[in-house]
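Page 47, continued from p. 46.
Same chain as before, 402 aa.
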Amino acid sequence: MVKIFSFVADGFDPLDPRGNVTIKWDIMQENDGTQDVKVSIFNYQLFRHIEPPGWKLSWLWPSNGVIWNIWGAEATEQGNCSAFRGRQLPHCCEKEPVIVDLLPGAPYNKQVANCCKGGVLTSMTQDHAKYGASFQMNIGSPSTDGSSHIPGIPGNFSLGLPGYTCGDPFQVPPSKFIEDQGRRRSQALGTWNVTCSYSQFRASTSPTCCVSLSAFYNNTIVPCPKCSCSCQGQPGAKCVKPGELPPVLQLQPNEKLDPVVECTHHMCPIRVHWHVKLSYKQYWRVKLTVTNLNFVKNYSQWNLVVLHPNLRSVTQDYNDMLLHSGESGNVQTELLLQKDPEIFTFREGWAFPRKISFNGEECVMPPPDDYPRLPNTGHLGASALAIPLVILLSFFVYSLIA
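Result:
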């Protein structure tokens, strides 16, 4: 899916200034020395989603906390539960448990609402029904006399995802829940939030995409900057030369493979090409091409965000699967933009985007001095307007006939 947005405000991140992932810890009920807790994870980022293998939530108990039982998720390790010999063993006795979402199709008696997506969360702009996840636990903290007491709110939360840093829990007004088809509202005994922010620099030492440019009024094609994402021959830079077969790689559970890209001068898994295609009297046309040069990954539910002052609407391309490198490894779409007489110009690189991101990751742009320039001659305007106008009219005729 291609989504094109217009932004005019400045801020920390003009593409998503308030984006974060929020962990919500709801105390639902207190029993005899145990507590029922609902944990929710919400991806409040507009364009960045959480891909497989998904989130791996962890925290540090303030005391000897244990998870007696859990629904909608599971701990990766049970840990040392030898202190509970002769009794029912807890689900997890780890001081720092690591919790993962259940996979789709999990046993019904293990499911809860909003669980079982394999840790995958969409972005806010793509699917409002799939940007959150939840699981429920019964927790306690054993004493030396064999009894149990409530461990308290944990700390040192982590999503287990590159680039994310989580803050300390802070108390907020109790969450409210709708029951009985909206006729009753209940609320948690207490609610704490943890805010996790993302940094592209923390996630990776190198970018993951780059941008190339061209225009109908100039024969020059401005390529992605050299070594945008890596350089051939650098340690860890894996690439496949044209005509060679990519390596056969086996993806293990909970493993994320490093990119194996086609050998290029920029070495990026994703290349975005912006081509100023045509100019009409009142409109201008842009062709966007997104090419996947990664041999080990297909991209589904991806998004492309473009920052440009002349964009006024959202355009969608329903081919939402960007296949791995090869003949089918690209998606194209065209944008028809109305000329704003107050700001429109082809001069000084104005027709090219200010910023492009793929899946929330900012792409490397060519230097502004390298942008395709208008020719110095003055005959371009008339000839460039006459022929494309015929093409535009033909397009509308074809649409009406079809």
